[in-house]
Amino acid sequence: MRPSFVLPLGLAAVILTLAGPAAADDDVAPAAEATTSVIVELVDLEIPGDAPVVAGLLGLGNDGVEPTAVFEELDLMAAEVTSSGLSSLRRAAGIVSVRPARTDLRLLLAESTVTVGAAALQLSGSTGAGRAVAVIDSGVDITHPGLAGSVIEQGCFLEGVPSFDARPGVRVVELCANGTRSDTSAQPCGVIPASCTHGTAVAGIISGDDATYTGVAPGADIIALRVTAVIEGLADQGDPEYPYSAYIPEAGVLAALERVYALRGTYDIAAVNLSLGGEPGSCTDAAWEDVIGRLTDAGIAVVAASGNDGWDDSITFPACLPDVISVGASTSTGTVAAFSSSSPDLDLLAPGSPVVSTVLPSFDATGFAAQQGTSFSAPHVAAAFALIGADLPPGWSVSRVRNLLRVSGEMIERVTVSPFDRDPRFPELRLEPVVAFEPFSDAGDGFWVEAADWAKVTGVSTGIGGNVFAPDLGLTRAQAVTFLWRFMGQPDFGTASGFGDVDPEAWYAPAVAWAAAVGVTTGTSPTVFSPDDVVTRAELATFMWRTAGEPVPGAISGFSDVAATDYFAVAVDWMAEHAITTGTSPTTFSPADTVTRAQMVTFEYRLADADLAWVGSVAPPDLALF
């Protein structure tokens, strides 16, 4: 059973979890009561996707609960409820949990192809042909000359759009073509600029084929899924001169994600683009994580914009969810856009301030316009999955591609008021090194492969020869300090270390000289380093802890084989606190075991992504991912 929680709701939209048929309700909702949209999570009901049938099975009738759609794959149902209907659902025996549904989702607004390296790949013949990207957005103008023939599938999902009858001067001016869900059309794409301009611009960044403003993957196909209703009478983002706004129902976005999952066997779908989002909150949600996890496991990347609120410690929902690839905006001058939200969880940056792309003629008579926002950044990354797919080895997971995009990016600093010596940095998308990358021949599967990819991209490891990494080989002390020396940027301390058993002409002499000079090692005695001895996990923990400046850990690791009096105890506590190690089991560290090459690169890779693991007196290296 998924975790559940209960929150007071009033007339807010809610998600409900049901454990079985709902009990009959005695309340009768007043005819004049306003309704609001809810999403009901069902527990594995083997039922057809028919709302009236589901209502009958759950014992729902004229009690203020009107099911409007069923998502069979996700075991979810959308419904309209009155306040009394919500009360009846709460009293029903089968209810497990109730929570407010998201009502704050909003849209987050071809020169950039040169910046990310797509233009060069296009010249060499890579276009993304044969692959598709799903654009869950405001709809796409399929008649736009820059998108001719790109849209191969459409749909409109507005489940959960509430009634605005009670709001003076407010009306819905555009829904789906027939006013209800459609799996075949994302239209209308009317003349109102708020209609399809946003989705059309996103689609143009992905696969626009105009000679001047070419998309990242001009050969890729588009699956256009509309999830916005155009509302008149509500000021857009506080601008009273802009009379239209887009309303995005949460149930509609979930339905669109389910639709993409259903189409996975029909098209070769590389990614889903979500240039929309809302307040992050706790950023956990079982329904979203379920469908996004399914898409990810199916090899479909889910990419989302980080948000335009300028936060430096938080990104929007759903970008903040674990399996979602979050994208912030960079500027044409190579900085992080001031409006772009970021946090340590932000995966990538891509151009977003400004970007020229396809728009409706009512927005700009030329059919193209420069706009800015993280909405424009996300499709660069979604398109990248289509563009580079043919150049990567078969069978790569979304996670591994995501990692390669991150470690191949160009680090850009965001200037903020920071408690650290260095402002946070994020990788901006670069595609040419990704396509040129050749993984180690034996890096096929395992906990260490993403770390090995990072090590090869950065030069931390060149393998043992013949493009072989040899993950299970034990590591010597000479090799261990060489890994760390390369990670720290190969600082020049000469070749004289003071150890009698280290020949100044040895390949590892510069690394040992550095390690001795900065205190990473004190040798096995004052005059002996023992370069050919194997390095134990205890020794390596100590080397790494000293490399980071000997930070004081805030917690004890709890490993049963690490005593507080051991010389390496503080180092292991530090590694555990920052998830650099998880032990050889939940309760053991195995300090006397020999470090393998797989463990070495994994420890270093984790340290490279651990911004809080360093003390202020030590500058993290340029190879760090923060």
Please describe what this structure looks like.
The chain is an alpha/beta fold and 626 residues long. It has 3 domains: 14-100, no CATH class; 106-160 and 178-228 and 246-432, Rossmann fold (3-Layer(aba) Sandwich); 451-613, no CATH class. The protein is 25% helix and 17% strand. It is built from 16 helices and 21 strands. It has a 7-stranded parallel sheet, with helices on both faces. Strands 3-4-2-1-5 form a 5-stranded mixed sheet, sandwiched between helices. A 3-stranded antiparallel sheet has the order 9-11-12, with no helix packed on it. The chain is globular.
Quick recap:
The chain has 626 residues and is of the alpha/beta class. Helices cover 25% and strands 17% of the residues. The N terminus is likely disordered.
The biggest beta sheet reads: 7 strands, parallel
Kindly report the name of the CATH homologous superfamily of the largest domain.
Peptidase S8/S53 domain
Q: What global shape is seen? A: globular
Radius of gyration, whole Å: 27 Å
Number of strands: 21
Which ranges are low-confidence, i.e. pLDDT below 50, for 5 or more consecutive residues?
Answer: 1-32
CATH topology of the largest domain: Rossmann fold
The number of domains: 3
Quick one: CATH class of the largest domain? Alpha Beta
Oligomerization status of the protein chains: single chain
Number of helices: 16
**How are strands sequenced across the largest beta sheet?**
8-10-7-13-15-16-17
Q: Which class do the helix and strand fractions yield?
A: alpha/beta
Terminal CA distance reads: 37 Å
Assign a percent range to the helix content: 10-25%
Specify the CATH architecture of the largest domain: 3-Layer(aba) Sandwich
Strand content: 15-25%
Mean pLDDT: 87
